[in-house]
Design a protein that fits this description.
The complex is a heterodimer of chains A (159) and B (759).
Chain A: E1 3-9, E2 12-18, H1 24-31, E3 50-53, E4 56-59, E5 72-74, H2 87-94, H3 104-117, H4 123-129, H5 141-151
Parallel strand pairs in A: 1-5
Antiparallel strand pairs in A: 1-2, 3-4, 3-5
Chain B: H1 17-22, E1 37-43, E2 49-55, H2 57-61, E3 65-70, E4 98-99, E5 105-111, H3 114-122, E6 125-130, H4 137-140, E7 156-164, H5 167-172, E8 176-184, E9 196-201, E10 207-211, H6 216-227, E11 234-237, H7 253-265, E12 269-272, H8 275-280, E13 284-285, E14 288-296, E15 302-314, H9 320-330, E16 339-348, E17 354-355, H10 362-380, H11 384-391, E18 397-399, E19 403-405, H12 410-424, E20 431-441, E21 456-462, E22 468-472, H13 481-493, E23 500-504, H14 521-548, E24 556-559, E25 562-565, E26 568-574, H15 575-585, E27 591-597, E28 609-620, E29 627-637, H16 644-663, E30 669-670, E31 673-674, E32 692-697, H17 720-732, H18 743-758
Parallel strand pairs in B: 1-12, 10-11, 13-17, 15-16, 22-23, 29-32
Antiparallel strand pairs in B: 1-5, 2-4, 2-6, 3-5, 7-16, 8-14, 9-10, 9-12, 14-15, 18-19, 20-28, 21-22, 21-27, 24-25, 25-26, 28-29, 30-31
Helix pairs in contact in B: 6-7, 9-10, 10-17, 13-14, 14-15, 16-17
Classes of the chains: A alpha+beta (159), B alpha+beta (759).
Chain lengths: 159, 759
């Protein structure tokens, strides 16, 4: 009863067989070992499992793995280029935009999706962009400061 | 800001920052071991019932199920964190005869995967005899109320009395007395990582538990109490922890059930609570009913205060007993009451147990106290800041018979907030700024846990390349304590932060430490680390002095990894070279330093206190009662600032949590059932609701703290709810005495006010 699943994750193609009820978050974590993607609620309310699917942010606990068949995914593990962190990651470090870090992968992916879609968001648009992600530690403002710094061009993409 | 430090006060990345922004940080949730099973817990759907029979036969037959345990598989011990008082250790975790709240655990299953374990739960047949239940503490203290625990008169779990001065006599001398009642609501911690544990018991009789916890040592000791495994045969490992906020330092059902399932099978068992279990079957902030009486002279001098409190205890004692004590003490904060009396009663009910949550009873007492103080100021025609100035604590103040306060920057904070409010100028219509003052402890002095160990201990080892390893039982739960401790160590040794590694929260390799609660680690664990580093430094200095051949009257110090004569800094030697030589001189033994800290002769509460004042601006829509938190400004002092980025994070995070407590977070119940056990239904502050925040740091120095530092985490959750209430009153003239201050309550109060006006 397993079905074939062909996906590309962080540039790497995978050919897998999964049960039809398997969630995308489970495939990423359990089959591919990409444990950066977290599970905070399993009901698409907290945002800890956010990944990018064909350039858009999705909560991977609310997508069946087979729905993603043929898609290209980016997880938090795909943000850095080799040993060079991405602008958002560096900005999060400089602005202390994480504490316990459990929401951070999802927060980074929502921020990345926002900037992919809208490279020059207003502050209100930034807030909207991460409104689906809960952070119980930071109070969000340091995350907004980090995104703002990236938008201002203070961090360069590694080559 | 002082510049005498090399490392402290610098804006640094947390030492685990890169792991967190790359997703490579490993939490208990990510731990997978060979041959590992997955566990699930069956919970009572009834608030109060006798367990007549548990039939696990069908569940055990399900393919993939490896073990099912019930209370009968335990030793029947009861656990509690007030270990000095056996009668307060009242929680079996896996109930044997009776369940006391919806969510009490009755059985646990280990299976090859989570789905199979979940399926097996449905096959367990529990026969209950339903008992009458009681949910409201005011009902539970009545003569004929159902008994939550046998033999506990009027369901009163614990009482606390604090008194100084002559309160009754003082009230007679007051020009004005106010009596007010308040209700403080429940609040869920909502850690992003739910409670979880991976337990691995081996044929050698040793148990290893990876778990998301605020205190590895507490979990180790409590597991030993419950299983009779010797304490040192249990290793508890806390690596990254996805938040705690007070919910993760008591033994929980994931840890205990995983441990006994693993003990039975000699296979690793992992249990991760679901978000629904997190809301219904872990502990929560203690709801409190408060009656306050406050007496003052015409000029605003506060002469006497009396606080009477009944708390909804829920089904078990837990850390709620400490919350009862601390709310009583902090009800007098941060003012100099010459006469004060507190009586608190914690009452058992058939609801989820209530316990510690960030602020530990002080957010409740600060909400009620700061609300009433504003009412008193208005009655007397005195400015709210002025009444706080007149009565606020000052340095070197003794709370009669209770506590000794050394550093205290409350008055500077009041001045800063006063300036800030004036700068804001005239506000738009229906805007208001409310203020609240607060104070909080830097770790508790009490030892109800009955540890024989020092409260904090640390070992520092210097390796041959000059790199330093710190071993501490402190737990980094996201608040950044490992970074703080590394900074303290680097400062003491005069080396770079990058040269310090921290091993923490692993009872197998770290000396015991009581852990992350009561804002204790910066001061207590910090002192232990500083002393251990100083021990190392002294050893290095012996070699350096010999090598340099200096006159013994000269002082040596290390700064920027350069060991030098203080009076002539250019004369020195490299720290790295001396370390190599010192190790050779010590017959090849790495340089090791030990340090510990236990508070002595510091009163009954805490060795040090932080203070602050917060101003909250709200904008109220008078048609709907909806309001917005516009701006939150906090003047704050926490002694020497060790990690400024960390303090900003603590402050802004506290506003998210405490703002939620004041504004929207609540756990409504129907017959003991929590009605909103999901993140979709439990409303908390998201990014769009988050106000602008500003921090005004006040410079103080705490003699008891490492390099003068003290608490900077929990105290910040105390003022916000009170400041919101005061701001709403300023904006639209309605006063809400029960939390949370929802738009609905504001709407109703506004309509009530209009009706009165029309009459």
């Amino acid at each position: 009863m397993k079905k074939e699943l062909k996906i590309k994750v962080n540039g790497q193609p995978y050919d897998l067989f999964v049960k039809p009820n398997t969630l995308l978050s489970e495939v990423l974590r359990d089959d591919l070992g990409l444990t950066g993607t977290k599970r905070g609620c399993n009901s698409s309310s907290c945002g800890a499992c956010t990944v990018m699917l064909n350039g858009m942010s999705v909560k991977s606990c609310s997508v069946l793995a087979i729905q993603a068949n043929g898609s290209e995914l980016v997880t938090v593990e795909g943000l850095a280029k080799g040993n060079k962190l991405s602008p958002l990651q560096n900005a999060f470090l400089d602005h202390g935009s994480y504490q316990c870090g459990f929401c951070t992968p999802g927060m980074l992916m929502s921020s990345k999706a926002l900037l992919t879609e809208n490279p020059k968001p207003t502050k209100e648009e930034m807030k909207e962009g991460i409104d689906g992600n809960i952070c119980r530690c930071t109070g969000y403002n340091s995350i907004i400061r980090a995104i703002t710094a990236v938008v201002k061009g203070e961090y360069k993409e590694a080559k | 800001m002082t510049t005498k430090f090399s490392v402290l006060g610098q804006r640094v990345h947390n030492i685990d920052g890169t792991e967190k922004v790359t997703g490579s940080a490993k939490y208990t949730f990510d731990v997978v071991l060979p041959n590992m099973l997955y566990g699930k817990i069956l919970r009572s759907p009834h608030p109060h019932a006798k367990i007549l029979k548990i039939d696990t036969r069908q569940a055990k037959k399900l393919i993939g199920v490896k073990a099912v345990v019930t209370g009968k598989d335990t030793l029947g011990h009861k656990q509690g964190i007030w270990r000095r008082f056996p009668e307060l250790c009242d929680e079996e975790i896996l109930c044997r005869e009776k369940v006391r709240y919806i969510g009490d655990a009755v059985a646990a299953v280990a299976a090859i995967d989570e789905d199979t374990a979940e399926e097996a739960l449905d096959l367990i047949d529990v026969e209950y005899d339903l008992l009458p239940a009681v949910f409201d503490p005011m009902e539970a203290i009545k003569e004929d109320a159902p008994q939550v625990h046998d033999g506990v008169e009027l369901n009163i779990n614990i009482t606390r009395h604090i008194e100084w001065g002559d309160v009754d006599e003082a009230f007679k001398k007051c020009d004005h007395i106010r009596e007010d009642q308040f209700k403080c609501s429940s609040q869920a911690h909502v850690c992003m990582e739910t409670h979880d544990a991976v337990a691995s018991f081996g044929h050698n009789g040793k148990l290893t538990v990876w778990t998301s916890t605020q205190s590895s040592y507490y979990i180790q000791r409590l597991l030993a109490d419950m299983t009779d495994i010797r304490e040192s045969d249990i290793r508890v490992i806390n690596r990254h922890t996805g938040g705690g906020f007070g919910s993760k330092f008591e033994l929980d059902s994931a840890q205990f059930c995983a441990a006994i399932l693993s003990q039975k099978l000699c296979q690793p068992v992992k249990i991760v609570l679901s978000r629904e279990e997190e809301f219904t079957a872990t502990k929560r902030r203690t709801p409190m009913y408060y009656a306050l009486k406050l007496g003052a002279k015409k000029d605003g001098t506060l002469l006497a205060k009396e606080a009477r409190v009944i708390t909804e205890g829920g089904a078990y004692t837990s850390m709620g007993a400490t919350a009862l004590y601390l709310t009583g003490f902090f009800s007098s904060f941060p003012y100099k009451y010459p006469n004060y009396r507190y009586d608190g009663y914690r009452v058992y009910t058939n609801t989820a147990p209530t316990s510690a949550m960030r602020g530990f009873g002080a957010p409740q007492s600060t909400f009620v106290g700061e609300s009433q103080l504003d009412m008193m100021a208005e009655d007397l025609g005195i400015d709210p800041i002025e009444i706080r100035r007149k009565n606020g604590m000052t340095p070197n103040y003794e709370v009669p018979g209770q506590a000794f306060i050394q550093s205290c920057g409350l008055h500077q904070c009041l001045d800063k907030i006063d300036e800030h409010i004036k700068e804001r100028g005239k506000l738009p219509p229906n805007h208001g700024i409310g203020v609240a003052s607060y104070g909080f402890m830097s770790g508790g002095i009490f030892n109800w846990f009955n540890t024989p160990y020092a409260f904090s201990a640390a070992v520092v080892r210097i390796n041959v390349d000059g790199k330093v390893d710190v071993y501490t039982g402190a737990c980094d739960i996201g608040q950044g304590s490992n970074t703080t401790l590394a900074m303290i160590c680097a400062e003491e040794l005069g080396i770079k932060l990058e040269d310090v590694r921290v091993f923490s929260g692993d009872t197998g390799i770290c000396p015991p430490d009581l852990g992350a609660w009561g804002s204790r680690q910066t001061l207590m664990s910090g002192n232990a680390v500083k002393r251990a580093a100083e021990d190392c430094k002294n050893q290095i200095m012996e070699f350096a002095a010999a090598k340099m051949g200096v006159n013994i009257v000269y002082d040596l110090d290390i700064k920027d990894s350069w060991i030098h004569i203080v009076a002539r800094p250019e004369r020195g030697v490299s720290y790295y070279d001396i370390v190599k030589e010192a190790i050779r001189g010590k017959d090849g033994v790495a340089i090791m330093g030990r340090g510990h800290y236990t508070p002595h002769r510091k009163g009954m509460i805490s060795p040090a206190y932080s203070f602050g004042v917060q101003a909250v601006e709200v904008a109220v829509d008078i048609e709907t009662g909806r309001y917005k938190l516009v701006y939150v400004t906090t003047a704050h002092e926490s002694g020497t600032v060790i990690n400024p980025v960390g303090i900003e994070g603590q402050l802004e995070g506290a506003i998210m949590m405490a703002g939620g407590y004041g504004y929207c977070e609540d756990q409504p119940m129907d017959d003991g059932k929590i009605l909103n056990p999901s993140i979709a239904d439990y409303k908390l502050i998201r990014s769009l609701d988050m106000p602008e925040t500003k921090i005004l740091e006040i410079d103080t120095y705490e003699p008891e703290g490492p390099f003068g530092a003290k608490e900077a985490g929990e105290g910040l959750t105390n003022p916000t709810a009170g400041a919101i209430g005061n701001a709403i009153y300023k904006a639209v003239g309605v006063r809400i005495n029960d939390l949370p201050i929802t738009p609905e309550k504001v709407f109703k109060a506004l309509r009530e006010k209009e009706k009165k006006k029309a009459k």
